[in-house]
Amino acid sequence: MALLERLASRQFVVVTGKGGVGKTVISAALGSLLADLGRRVLLLEVDPRENLHQAFDVPPSGGEVVRISTHLSLQNLQPRQVIEDLVRHHLLVELLARRVTASPIFQHFVEGAPGLKELAVLSEAERVIKAKGKGRSAHAAFDVVVLDAPATGHGVSLLAAPQLVSEVIERGPIGAQARELARMVADPERTAIVVVTLAEEMPVQETLELRDALEVQVARSPELLVVNSLYPPFPGGRVEGPPNDEFLLDLWRTRREVNERELAHLAAAWQGARVEIPMLPADRGPRLLAGIRQQMLEMGQAA
């Protein structure tokens, strides 16, 4: 089965990596490609700055589900709001729920409880998946959730949180929910992990550390590594150009040499599937998304 088809068979695809490597646009490209395969996809973003909508040139989510196409939607998700919604769901009485969520004790608990926000994000993803076919809301239409997850260390914390919480809280609804989410994250038939990096020294080192941390803390390895924004190969021999272009040519040559060195490092250290995306002459938006989609489609079909 080709790589994209394997990812399309999962319910939950988590995209993580070092900040600044293009994780959000890779998430957008993956989500749209899975939608093209007939899966009904919800792209989830947890960054309050809201960047995901720019790839599709649609309005910001503001917490609402934004429909992009027949099979693709996106939503910006705020963990605090999810937790407050859970309180309202269980308390039923709105006045009582408002008093609880407005209390300083509750606010400190939400901010300080280890793993609670991560659990809220995963709980919402699982709720979307479980709602499929029940007709309760706009969420009921989705087959797979693609999560534009927090960067590297926070991404590991997100995936490790259910197991850690389940070990601390053994009883009650929170403990039961944590155990269910831990099973979801641990199941490679339900959850896939995609890591995005640049072919540069620090991002590659963080990527290898992320893989090792996932193996230790979650007992999982990533299904895919995406190496983004590769400089094009530098032509052999002397490249002639105007004198003021010498700096740019030297920069091109140097950055490509760094890319090649780090690609060799990854080839030796990373045994899993890998997709390489060249640097594309486009700013953030639909044009860049289209270029990355095409590159991922070609390599994903061959993998």
Give a description of the structure:
This protein has 303 residues and is α/β, with parallel strands linked by helices. The chain has a single domain, classed as Rossmann fold, CATH 3.40.50.300. The protein has helices at 3-8, 23-36, 79-91, 94-102, 104-112, 116-130, 152-168, 172-186, 201-217, 246-269, 286-302, and strands spanning 12-17, 41-45, 66-69, 72-76, 144-148, 191-198, 224-230, 273-278. An 8-stranded mixed β-sheet has the order 3-4-2-5-1-6-7-8, with helices on both faces. Strand 3 (66-69) and strand 4 form a beta hairpin. The longest helix has 24 residues, at 246-269. The chain starts with a helix and ends with a helix. Residues 133-139 have low confidence and may be disordered.
What strand order characterises the main sheet?
3-4-2-5-1-6-7-8
Please give the alpha-carbon distance between the first and last residues: 9 Å
Radius of gyration (CA) equals: 21 Å
**Run of helices and strands:** HEHEEEHHHHEHHEHEHEH
Structural class: alpha/beta
How many strands appear in the DSSP assignment? 8
- In the predicted model, the low-confidence regions spanning at least 5 consecutive residues are 133-139
CATH level 1 class label: Alpha Beta
Overall 3D shape: globular
CATH architecture: 3-Layer(aba) Sandwich
DSSP helical segment count: 11
Number of domains: 1
Mean pLDDT: 84
Q: Determine the fraction of residues in helical runs and give it as a percent range.
A: 40-55%
Instruction: Please outline the major beta sheet.
Output: 8 strands, mixed
The CATH topology corresponds to Rossmann fold
The CATH superfamily is: P-loop containing nucleotide triphosphate hydrolases
Instruction: Kindly estimate the percentage of residues that lie in beta strands according to DSSP.
Output: 15-25%
